[in-house]
Write a structure and sequence with these properties.
Largest sheet: 2 strands, parallel
Low-confidence stretches: none
Helix content: 10-25%
Number of strands: 2
Radius of gyration: 11 Å
Structural class: alpha+beta
Mean pLDDT: 94
Number of domains: 1
């Protein structure tokens, strides 16, 4: 992790994926901007997200991802 790679998977980068794309993150949890992913899932731009890592592990029970459509 560096300052340049923290949240590199942000709204600007993820929104460049084609409509209906899937996001797979097996790198570092800090690479992903959680709120950006949720926004793009809710808009339908991103169809599905497969996440093996999170900013906080284990993922807290109250995290938004647990209630998120398209999150696996």
């Amino acid at each position: 992790m560096t300052a340049q790679t923290t949240n590199i998977l942000n709204y600007n980068n993820l929104s460049q994926l084609p409509q209906g794309a899937a996001v797979i993150n097996v790198a570092r949890g800090e690479h992903l901007d959680d709120d950006a992913l949720i926004t793009l899932l809710n808009s339908g731009h991103i169809d599905t997200a497969y996440l093996d890592v999170f900013k906080q592990e284990p993922l807290p029970k109250e995290h938004k991802f647990w209630q998120q459509k398209g999150f696996l």
